[in-house]
Design goal:
- By secondary structure, this protein is mainly α.
- It folds into 2 domains: 4-111, no CATH class; 119-369, Up-down Bundle (Fumarate Reductase Cytochrome B subunit), CATH 1.20.950.
- It contains 15 helices and 2 strands.
- It has helices spanning 4-15, 28-43, 52-56, 64-73, 79-83, 96-111, 120-123, 126-146, 165-193, 201-213, 235-264, 275-300, 311-333, 340-357, 364-379; strands spanning 225-226, 232-233.
- A two-stranded antiparallel sheet has the order 1-2.
- Strand 1 (225-226) and strand 2 (232-233) form a beta hairpin.
- Helix 4 (64-73) packs across helix 15 (364-379).
- The longest helix has 30 residues, at 235-264.
- The radius of gyration is 24 Å and the shape is elongated.
- The two termini are 14 Å apart.
C-alpha cells in the first residue's frame, strides 16, 4: 500500500545517495516517465486536463505497472506540453506526451502475443505495410489470372465469379481470428499487470462513453488539442471520429452481409439501397475523410509532441486504412467494368494486410487505451490507497 511512509523512505534513500524508485526501473523510457510524473505530482497545474493527472495524484511513486497504466491513459493531446513551465528548454525537460508515447509502444511490445512478434511494432513502417499489401494483391492477381478472370466484367458484377465465397472465407477468416486473438491475449496481460478490481455498471458506462466520445481529446476545456503549435483545435478529435466510426460502419456492412448470406440465404451482390451497401458506402467515405485528415495533422504536428520514431508506424496504419476505404469505394464505381477483378485484388490485398498487421500496428493503441480508461473508471470509484485527508 502506498502511504506517506513511501515518501519518507524515498527521501531517506535519496539522502543516503541511493537511487529513487523510478531510477531503479530497468528501462530508461519507463524511468523517464516516472521522473516526469514526480515533477508533475509536485506541481499539479495540469490536473484538470485529462484522466492522467487525477490518476497520478493517487500515487506517490511510480513503478512499472503504474507507468504502463498512465502511458496508455494518455491521449497525447499536447495540452500539458504547452501549459508546462518546466517543458523544454527548461532544464527539467518535462515532456509528458513524448515520454508517454515512448513507453506506450513498449507496453504493446511486452504484451504482444506471440511474444517474438512484438518486435514488429518497431518495424511496421509505411514501406513494409504497402509492400505487404502489394504482395498479397499480386498473389490474388496471379490466382485470378490462372482462371482467366483477372480482366473482364463478371456476371452481374459478382465478386464470387472471380473468387468463390468459400475461397474468400478460407483466406480471411484465419487472419481475422488471429488478429482478434492476439489483441485479446495482449490486453489480458496488460489488465492482469495491475488489476483494478471488479467493474461496476457505472464504471463500464463511463468508460464506454469516454471511448466513444473521445472525451480526453478536448484538451480538458472543450476547445480541443494542440497540434502544430499552442493553438487549440478540435480537428484531431473530429478526424478520429470519422476514422473510428467509418471503420465500424464498414465492419457492420460486412457483418450484415454475412448474416444475409448464412441466415437468409441472400447472396451478393446487393442493391445500392440495401443495408450492406448503405453502411459500406457511408463508412468508406467517412474512413477516407478521417484518415486523410489524420495524415495531414500528423505531418504538421509539433516536433516535441509524441515520439518521432513512431511516425512510420502511424503512417503505415493510416495508409492501409485509406487504401482499404478508397479501393472499396472504387469497387462500387467499377461494377460491370473489366477493371473490377483487378480492383478487387487490390482491395482484398489491402484488407488482408490490414488485419495481418493489426495486432502489431497503431490499431493496438485504441484497444489498450480503452482498457486503461476502464481501469481508471474503476479505480476512481475505489478509496484512495494513500489515505490522505478526506480520501
Amino acid at each position: 500500500m502506498q502511504t506517506l511512509e513511501a515518501l519518507t523512505r524515498e527521501a531517506a534513500e535519496l539522502a543516503q545517495g541511493r537511487p529513487a524508485p523510478h531510477q531503479r526501473l530497468a528501462d530508461a523510457e519507463e524511468a523517464e516517465v516516472a521522473r516526469v510524473l514526480q515533477i508533475c505530482n509536485a506541481c499539479r497545474y495540469c490536473e484538470g486536463f485529462c484522466a492522467v493527472f487525477p490518476a497520478m495524484t493517487r500515487r506517490l511513486q511510480f513503478d512499472k505497472t503504474d507507468v504502463h497504466f498512465l502511458a496508455n491513459l494518455c491521449h497525447q493531446c499536447g495540452a500539458c506540453l504547452h501549459a508546462c513551465q518546466y517543458a523544454p528548454p527548461h532544464e527539467f525537460g518535462v515532456n509528458v506526451p513524448r515520454a508517454m508515447a515512448q513507453v506506450r509502444v513498449r507496453t504493446y511490445v511486452e504484451h504482444a502475443w506471440p511474444a517474438p512478434l512484438g518486435r514488429l511494432y518497431q518495424r511496421n513502417g509505411l514501406a513494409l505495410a504497402l509492400a505487404l499489401a502489394a504482395g498479397l494483391a499480386l498473389f490474388l492477381m496471379l490466382a485470378a489470372a490462372r482462371t482467366g478472370s483477372l480482366w473482364g466484367a463478371p456476371p452481374e458484377g459478382s465478386f464470387y465469379a472471380i473468387f468463390p465465397h468459400g475461397t474468400m472465407v478460407s483466406l480471411f477468416a484465419p487472419v481475422f481470428l488471429f488478429a482478434v486473438l492476439a489483441l485479446a491475449l495482449g490486453v489480458r496481460q496488460f489488465w492482469r499487470e495491475s488489476p483494478p478490481g471488479p467493474a461496476s455498471a457505472p464504471a463500464l458506462a463511463e468508460a464506454t462513453q469516454n471511448v466513444l466520445s473521445l472525451r480526453y481529446l478536448d484538451g480538458g476545456h472543450g476547445q480541443g488539442c494542440n497540434n502544430a503549435d499552442d493553438a487549440f483545435t478540435l480537428a484531431r478529435r473530429r478526424f478520429h471520429h470519422f476514422t473510428f466510426y467509418g471503420f465500424m460502419l464498414c465492419f457492420a456492412a460486412t457483418s450484415v452481409a454475412t448474416l444475409y448470406h448464412y441466415l437468409l440465404g441472400w447472396t451478393a451482390p446487393y442493391g445500392p439501397t440495401s443495408l450492406p451497401k448503405l453502411l459500406g458506402t457511408t463508412g468508406g467515405v467517412s474512413l477516407m475523410v478521417g484518415t486523410a485528415g489524420l495524415w495531414w495533422l500528423n505531418r504538421r504536428r509539433h516536433p516535441l509532441q509524441g515520439d518521432p520514431a513512431q511516425r512510420p508506424m502511424d503512417h503505415a496504419f493510416i495508409a492501409l486504412l485509406f487504401l482499404v476505404a478508397s479501393s472499396g469505394l472504387a469497387l462500387m464505381l467499377l461494377k460491370g467494368t473489366p477493371a473490377l477483378a483487378l480492383t478487387l485484388c487490390i482491395h482484398l490485398g489491402a484488407v488482408m494486410a490490414l488485419f495481418a498487421t493489426m495486432p502489431y500496428s497503431k490499431f493496438a493503441h485504441g484497444v489498450y487505451r480503452g482498457a486503461a480508461l476502464l481501469k481508471w473508471s474503476i479505480e476512481k470509484r475505489a478509496p484512495s490507497k494513500l489515505q490522505l485527508g478526506d480520501d
